[in-house]
Amino acid sequence: MRQAHPMFATVGIMGVGLIGGSLGLTIQAHGLATRVLGSGRSVESLKTAQELGLIDEIVSEEELATRADLIIVCVPVAQSLALFSKIAKHLQPHALVIDVGSTKLDVIASAKQAFGEKVGQMIACHPIAGGAQHGPRAAKEDLFDKKQLIICPILENASKDISKIEQFWQLLGAHVFKMPALMHDHLFAAVSHLPHLLSYAMMLQIAQSPDADKKFVHAGAGFRDFTRIAGSSPEMWTDIAVANQVAILAELDGFLKIIEQMKHALKTKDTEKLQRMFQLASQSRNNWQVESTLTSPIHE
């Protein structure tokens, strides 16, 4: 639904890939801003985004920070500190900054270091949306529709600002959750970050095998589903892995214990043990699928 009155006069998007480009497209489709500015490292991507109507104008980071009422940072998390530091002195007193990073403790630490007393203007966000394709041409207007959006408030955030950003994401179609950054990074190490590492590892194992060509020729739907997310941005996921190192390593240790148990059962031909493990995994997957369908994702 298009808003009669925009929430923001000017929105600035820093980084116009899949997420940033989809935000620009959706913000304009819903009438949430009068003007959408774009900045980033790739001139080609910015020009493509403008040609596609994802942004109205290409500007520098400094000009974007000076003009925007809402700044959306859509860059790999390792770049957060440098970018926050670059725009800090240009940030207007009324403006809000949000990010879309997949880790939150490191981004919040960078914001506190760069923004200082202005850190309350930055609200840490994470849309649980994406895809294997990246770049502005992959942008989709419905990318956030019915997807989870995590907000990780800090003490310095004003409640009215949190409410405004929550409303913003809801108008884009997202279901908003709020949780502490530590909990966020712990949970998503298990259900997002580790699965990406495993998908990359599976693809790498096949790609580096001497008969890779034959294996790829005969790979079917199961392999395609398992490795789909290995097509995601290597730069982004390298940053995420390093940023959430401790939590991911803990989850990886747990995973390796399961693999060792399966390996031992297979070596000893312990079919009962293997079947019990497979059965528990299958039941858990089916139960989760039913619960995720029936349970409302709205959470305060």
CATH topology of the largest domain: Rossmann fold
Q: Please summarize the sheet with the most strands.
A: 8 strands, mixed
What is the CATH class of the largest domain?
Alpha Beta
Percentage of residues in helical conformation: 40-55%
Account of the 3D structure:
This protein is 53% helix and 13% strand. It has 300 residues and is α/β, with parallel strands linked by helices. It folds into 2 domains: 8-179, NAD(P)-binding Rossmann-like Domain (Rossmann fold, 3-Layer(aba) Sandwich); 184-294, 6-phosphogluconate dehydrogenase C-terminal like domain (6-phosphogluconate dehydrogenase C-terminal fold). The protein is globular and about 65 Å long. The model is unreliable at 294-300 (pLDDT under 50).
Detail the topology: elements first, then pairings.
Layout lengths: L7 E7 L3 H12 L3 E7 L3 H9 L5 E2 L2 H7 L2 E4 L6 H8 L8 E4 L5 H11 L6 E6 L20 E5 L6 H13 L3 E4 L2 H27 L4 H7 L2 H7 L6 H10 L1 H23 L3 H24 L6
Parallel strand pairs: 1-2, 1-4, 2-3, 4-5, 5-6, 7-8
Antiparallel strand pairs: 6-7
Name the features.
single chain; 300 residues; alpha/beta; Rossmann fold; 6-phosphogluconate dehydrogenase C-terminal fold; 2 domains; 8-stranded mixed beta sheet; 53% helix; 13% strand; globular; disordered C terminus
Concise account of the structure shown:
Helix content is 53%, strand content 13%. It is α/β, with parallel strands linked by helices and 300 residues long. The chain starts with 7 loop residues before the first strand and ends in a 6-residue tail after the last helix.
